[in-house]
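Here we describe the complex-level prediction in full. Unlike the single-chain runs in Section 2.1, the two entities below were treated as one system.
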Amino acid sequence: MKLTILFGGASFEHEISIVSAITIKEKLQKHFDLSFVFCDTDHSFYLIEAEKMQAKTFSSGEYKKLPQLGLGRGRFECKRMFKKIEVDGVVLNLVHGADGEDGTIASLLDFFDINYIGPRTDASVFSYDKRYTKWLCEAKGIRYVKYDVLYADEQKDVRFDFPLIVKPARLGSSIGVSVVKESEELDYALDVAFEFDDVVVVEPFIAGVKEYNLAGYLADGELHYSIVEEPQKQEFLDFEKKYMDFSRSEAVSKAAIDAALTNELKENFKNIYLDMFEGALIRCDFFVIDNEVYLNEINPIPGSMANYLFDDFPRAIEQLASSLPHRKRAKINYEYIHNISAAKGK
Amino acid sequence: MKLTILFGGASFEHEISIVSAITIKEKLQKHFDLSFVFCDTDHSFYLIEAEKMQAKTFSSGEYKKLPQLGLGRGRFECKRMFKKIEVDGVVLNLVHGADGEDGTIASLLDFFDINYIGPRTDASVFSYDKRYTKWLCEAKGIRYVKYDVLYADEQKDVRFDFPLIVKPARLGSSIGVSVVKESEELDYALDVAFEFDDVVVVEPFIAGVKEYNLAGYLADGELHYSIVEEPQKQEFLDFEKKYMDFSRSEAVSKAAIDAALTNELKENFKNIYLDMFEGALIRCDFFVIDNEVYLNEINPIPGSMANYLFDDFPRAIEQLASSLPHRKRAKINYEYIHNISAAKGK
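The structure predicted for the assembly as a whole is:
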């Protein structure tokens, strides 16, 4: 089966997308006919040979010597004088953060009728912006940590007691995130967060909370779940720690939790996933506070696709690639224009 | 000032977008250096000469003989052997319905750094899908009519008394919408709605409700409002009636309402618009029920841009075109890749 790994993008997560793609190559190259399409920070696409899939190809700018691609109907392509390159496999959208997770790439691929694994435009909008994830939870009856929203151009007091956690609204990978223990530290934490986004989300920071990650996808009409992982915790994962996380490929052990909690996590996952995330393999990060499950965040394109949580990751990707949603297309017959022209007598 | 009217799209509203564009041409051609870019139902773009801006150019397929355009950095363009066409004005997104209002075109234009008037991707998602508009209202404390959601593949009873109004979740222009007076009519109404979408929204139908429309946009740091209109009511506007609406260009009279209600409508508009619809001229359709203002729907690309509600429509477009939002772009220096490569000793 042909599979095109699309990675890079003009986002703060550009580099971790490269790391993710290199990891995915290792996990999938025996099972798929892989192509690699790199989106650079100028939004140009390049076809990267498998043996060039190393960090230095990108950091050195060497990728610019490789074939540049355009978007064509159902594929990436390059038309040159004497040869034509066509990259027409199902795309695995591995562009983390802006472009990849905010709905831009999803829309682009939809517009050009390119089949892809990844969140659709609306699913992207709800998972990328931390405010909208809260709205989604509210609408679906899923517990979430209470929050305040601060805008760069306004003066507003935070209504929670310390400690707090301060996050740019639209960035993943812990970039710009701070835990603030006392009021003296707040201004600096806000300055850091506003470096990355004009909108900042502030939540009470709950020390010692239990955290569980669960990934899954819909294929052949049913949800397929990964194991539940209890991630290694520091106070919270900073960017460098998370960065290394994007290259994870070793299987992890199941969290030591009972069947009831496992089921409750799955029920919450299902509630989030259905009617929104079809076509994507997502990872939901949950908190358990006073025996209640809370959604912390949705990763609609998790680092290296959370491969380490699945027993048979290549099979998961294959199943998903064969169960992708398709958009309803309108058929246009110009009936109304004909009617109205007739009515107007022209 | 150059302005590119982008219209068409692969949606049920394809034809009304053509009507809208022809109307806009009449309203703006004296004030702007206009270009017309047509997106056909195959998602190919064509440059349409001003004198060819007639319904029959499209219904006859004649547009296919005109120059085909591609997307380039900051513009539409056509590279041919001996001449190069560049269409680089600010784009006015006039693609109604799917593509134009669901975030696809917004993402496409953002990706190619083309400046445009119209809703951004997230604003599109929240206004296009009637479910998400309700979620937006809930989050922002705006009143909305209670609702139920039905999916094509499920059996579920509607929990409201008749009469009801049945609407496809993701279509504008009253397509597929029915008022259902008694239970015998419900199945047929649902069949009609499910023709257009797999998701249907059902609301109690409130007869004789007062309806008011208000349009506006943010420019130079402040909101500019249109007059408030009380639309001519039939039971509800059906598609043919609305279709004619998209060609409206005659100024209308102000609704006969007092200053208090006008202000309340403006406050509701402001609450909806800010932090989401920047860059767009939108029209909000409100209900007044028992003296309370309810949001009925958001039109993020209203028919012919609701030109008839503005005293000086060309000036509105000019102001808006000069106040468009720009995305924060990440700067990538490959610092992490360099650090990690150094740590690994390679």
